[in-house]
Amino acid sequence: MVTTARLALLAHPAGHSVSPAMQAAALAHAGIAARYEALDVAPAELGAAVAALRSAPWLGANVSVPHKAAVVPWLDSLSPTARRLGAVNTIVRRGDRLHGDNTDLTGFGRSVDELLDAAGERSSGRTVVVLGAGGAARAVVAALVDRDFAVGVYNRTAARARALVADLAAASVLVLEESELASAVASAHLVVQTTSVGMTGGPAGSPLPPGVGPRAGAVIDLVYRPPVTPLLRAAAAAGLAVRNGLPMLVYQGAASFEAWTGQAAPLDVMGRAAEEALGGPGRGWTGPLGRDPPA
Ligand code: ATR
């Protein structure tokens, strides 16, 4: 008898995630008898939920908001990336031990490399403005430090930007004050939007003050629901290379799949399943916004 292996997303809330559809498609394509489900785990239940992963048929789990940092003490070992970010988005069971990894950094890195290659943006001395200083911003800033960008971080709450910069301890990362934002954005090779502004159900509008906007280069907005935020629309209209958060989501999911199964992830199957879960094609994996050239 084949025992169905198990995988889960531990999040709170967990209902709107695209990961179950994306991972189910990948598992089916690879012929792996495993089930991936979203589990709504309240903060007080996190320890028990993680403890349950220590035996078969569990292969591991994904971890999302608000548990990425809180899960660390419940694990036996961490990858260097998870330790550097102080956050885990992937748990892999090894016997009865649980190993924590973070695939957000490689997921974002792969997405930004593709966009910059497509935009011909490979000059040295590149600058980037990162908007936001939450959990997503940490993975983004670390990936950009690794690519030798000079990074400016702007956040509504400056103290949080200062904490991020202090934690990552990289000389190439600075906090931007509001008075510096307009000129930094105008001259940046890349702008990355990591806040919840513009997200369906989140604060409306753009995280940039009126009149402030990038003039050249590329813009990534990590929001993918809706597929085009006001910031991305304005950047595309100005002729800039743009990308939403869906490729990062797919690439982090692909890296998690590979950590659990040891098999190469079927990227296009995962990207198309994610788009299907979001309502159909053209939402950032395929079509003008995505990796396909514009029709
Ligand atoms: P995540 O893990 O997805 O990054 P988070 O840690 O809650 O989520 O961070 C949310 C980010 O969105 C923060 O940078 C937050 O700014 P504050 O630190 O000032 O709260 C930003 N954000 C949320 N709502 C915002 C708004 N209305 N305007 C500007 N920034 C906002």
Commentary on this structure:
The protein is of the alpha/beta class. The chain contains ten helices and twelve strands. The strands form two sheets. A six-stranded mixed beta sheet has the order 2-1-3-5-6-4. It has a six-stranded parallel beta sheet with strand order 9-8-7-10-11-12, with helices on both faces. Helix 1 links the parallel strand 1 and strand 2. The model has no long low-confidence stretch (mean pLDDT 94). Bound molecules: 2'-monophosphoadenosine-5'-diphosphate. The site of 2'-monophosphoadenosine-5'-diphosphate has 17 residues, from helix 5.
Summary of the model, kept short:
By secondary structure, this protein is α/β, with parallel strands linked by helices.
What's the helix-strand series?
Answer: EHEHEEHEEHEHEHEHEEHEHH
Strands ordered across the widest β-sheet: 2-1-3-5-6-4
The class by helix and strand makeup works out as alpha/beta
Helical content class: 25-40%
Enumerate how many helices there are, as a single number.
10
The tally of strands reads 12
The span between the termini is: 48 Å
Unique ligands: 2'-monophosphoadenosine-5'-diphosphate
**Radius of gyration, in angstroms, nearest whole number:** 19 Å
What is the overall silhouette? globular
Largest beta-sheet details: 6 strands, mixed
Q: What ranges have pLDDT less than 50 throughout 5 or more consecutive residues?
A: none
